[in-house]
Amino acid sequence: MKIIKTYKFRLNPDEKTLTLLKQHGGNSRFLWNQLVDFSSKYNEENKKFPNQILLQKEIIRIKKDNEFLKISHSQPLQIHAQRLVKTNLRSITKETINLRKQKIAKAKTKKQMAKALNFGKPKFKSKHNNSDSIFYPQNFKIKRSRIFLAKIGYISFIKHRKIEGKPLSLIITQDGEQWYCSTSCELKIKDIPKINLDKANIVGIDLGTKSFATLSDDTVIENPRTLRKHLKKLKREQKILSKRQFVEKQINGKAVKTSSSNRTKQRIKVQKIHRKIRNIRNDFLHKTTHDMINKYDGFSLETLDIKNMVSEGSKGLNRSISDVSWYQFCRILEYKSAWNAKHFVKIDKYFPSTQKCSKCNNLMSMELKNRIYDCHICGNYMDRDKNASLNILNEGLNILHTLATKEIYACGQPANQAGKLVLNLKTKRSKKSSKKLDSEQIKLCSVPNL
Predict the structure, then answer these.
(1) Which of these, 299, 302, 236, lies nearest to 266 by C-alpha position?
(2) How far apart are alpha carbons 257 and 440 in whole angstroms?
(3) Residues 341 and 444 in one domain
(4) How many distinct structural domains can be found in the chain?
(5) For residue 197, is it within any domain?
(6) Are 393 and 285 in a shared domain?
(7) Are 39 and 83 a contacting pair, CB within 8 Å?
(8) In a structure prediction context, what are the per-residue pLDDT tens digits for the chain, which is 450 residues long?
(9) Quick check: is 299 in a domain?
(10) Looking at 188, 210, 230, which one is the last position of a domain?
């Protein structure tokens, strides 16, 4: 089985290379902003978005007018045309339009209304975010602990793990004062058969904010509460940043407000805290999923409507939901399950896992403050998260068994083998029409849609 695996490493550039990275990243950002401006004006005049050919011609014109763009390699600049076409098409889909209407209806201030009107549309990139990127589909090399980029040269990176597979593309990203390289590699892994459902150790997982996850085998994974531990320091640094002022400078004869040197230094401090929170959260998620993959043979999870939960919840609850990172956990566990031949299923988001009794299937309303499930019919008395995990496990097993019965027929023979056998019988009938087949050969499992 072929998979795409991405490896991310931190770069260790010298001063000269760092200046080149900033220059190439700035050129990429400048060209993107020019294309977004051209696309919006073209849409206003012609009532349609420009195609990729028009955008590539516009790139040639922009490069003629701005000679500093010739310093950068052509491919990281040309890729913006393809990306902008995809972004424009995504902005006019039904889902995006419906979400935009919802945000416009909920907007109360002018700032919220302006943000809602531009939801899903391509946006301009800011220089002050320190989040530039350079994409290389080709013309890069990875040798030991160095990478070679066209028109930049060799850059050393911290190689903390071995790179497997064939590198397909490479992207350079900026995160504050740090730079990273990410390479996507195609590699083959062995097709390991999944363990039979009757013998597999499958577990149901109920995600929450009080505890990160409650498993159906009484295992409880505590919530690390990463943001809460660093919130006091983050508030203090953000308060200092809000008091730092902008300075007016003359750039090309125009008075422009730019960030002062003290404000820039403070903004870097805030970025460091956010990066630390993000790294701690990702480290927790990868370690947790790694341990679960080694311990269990399958997983049954609930599908959570996180956007709706955040929009309807209180401020404190929204912060806890965003901090716990449920979506990222499910995404990591899903692709790791595929790599390691583990069963993985997600039940419907409308399934009443919390309200349903795991013993008698009775339904009763449960408020968020009620932490114990007390069934008045069968007397089931247990923690609400444990009860929900058992319901998720039972529903997940039903879905897995249903999928398994669709692939295997009543006689226990796989569909592809039964189909081949029936086709062989048809050829035998055509060649030896005078001879009758044995009764044992004719009594086969019926194969539909042949």
Answers:
(1) 236
(2) 88
(3) no
(4) 3
(5) no
(6) yes
(7) no
(8) 899 999 999 999 999 999 999 999 999 999 999 999 999 999 999 999 999 999 999 999 999 999 999 999 999 999 999 999 999 999 999 999 998 998 899 888 988 899 999 999 999 998 888 889 999 998 899 998 999 999 999 999 999 999 999 999 999 999 988 999 999 999 998 888 899 988 899 999 999 988 999 999 989 999 999 999 999 999 999 999 999 888 877 777 777 788 888 988 999 999 999 999 999 999 999 999 999 999 999 999 998 888 888 877 677 788 888 899 999 999 999 999 999 999 999 998 888 888 888 888 888 888 888 888 888 888 888 889 999 999 999 999 999 988 887 654 444 444 444 444 333 434 444 444 444 444 433 333 333 333
(9) yes
(10) 188
Do residues 437 and 428 touch, judged by C-beta distance below 8 A?
A: yes
Nearest CA among 281, 288, 293 for reference residue 344: 293
Residues belonging to the chain: 450
Query: Is residue 194 situated within a structural domain?
Result: no
- Please state the pTM of the whole predicted model: 0.83
- Are both 341 and 208 inside the same structural domain? yes
Domain that includes residue 12, residue range: 2-188
**Are both 329 and 281 inside the same structural domain?**
yes
